[in-house]
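Protein: NB-ARC domain-containing protein
Species: Salix brachista
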Amino acid sequence: MRDAEENIHNQQKIRCSFLGSPCFCLNQVVQRRDIALKIKEVSEKVDEIAKAKAMYGFQLYKATDHELQRPTSTHFFDESSVSGRDGEKKSVVSMLLAESSQEAQDVDVISLVGLGGIGKTTLAQLAFNDVEVTDHFEKKIWVCVSEPFDEVRIAKDILEQLKESKPNLAGLQSLLQSVSRSINGKRVLLVLDDVWTENHRQWEQLKPSLAGCARGSRILVTTRKGAVATMIGTDHRIDIETLSDDACRSIFNHVAFHKRSKEERERLEDIGNKIATKCKGLPLVAKVLGGLMQSKRTREEWEDVLSSELWGLDEVDKDKIEKEIFLPLLLSYYDLPSVGSSFKHDAGRGDLFSLVHSQSKRSSKPLDRQLWRPMAWSCTT
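Structure follows.
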């Protein structure tokens, strides 16, 4: 009898302990309601994206290292296709030829910084091949660094150009020692094109091997990242600006009308000048669009390109634009930091995609919905 009373009493205590905590129950209800609302919000957003995908024909695209292949460079180039960089070239050459601002054991570093496709490599090529620069330096070396920053490959490339033969050495220590001996006492110009790494340790491994060259030696770096210029201890930084519309037209016309008759040029040049305004100051875009127009002979074909958004071109043209313009620019896009709600106000991103965004003005299916908006989503999530 007593055991039965104790069981009843315990059950009442348990029941009362739950009934006596209304806050606990209320909190549980609120938390579950909040979770349900979040799930509903995410579900609605997924539905919105799915509808946009169907409406605008979005394709699932997974970037790979192969697809986003980083371009390689050499110091060889067609100077006749360059326009609008006389001022910058003069500044760079002047810095290369000037008296060293550093102590004898240091080398002045000049960094060219700017967006992909803006002409950093071309400017470096202009300076590298300048007659005065060639006469001034005993040795000139061009290395396309790119990503990843491979110290062994870079050292081998430097040594091969110094000795004009392929080095038999394999280890980084041996390579750097040989580099150091080969440049000792010589006035050297070393171009490091397309540098991405911000890893100071990697740069510090390479730098000491360059310390023995003669006073007046220079390192010229091109990079898309201001942080790289800071990391390597830049003495002179030049921020590369976009070209004028006139310069873009000049580049576009040089390529588009290559080996064409005077009659063809006169018949198509007015449309070509309008197409060139799509370049938004990027010489890479001017060259690619010019190359695209080389195969188009009729005025109707040129007008189609002028009136079409870039994604509205036929498959062959679209493939050329994607591979030669947008994939290289995506390297810069992926490397830019996320800025959340300030995406639209970020100058770097705005310049990078102004070309794409501007095409929406002519189309019934605006490009800002096709490309700009999905990119904005990716940056704010």
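Remarks: Residues 22-56 form the longest helix (35 residues).
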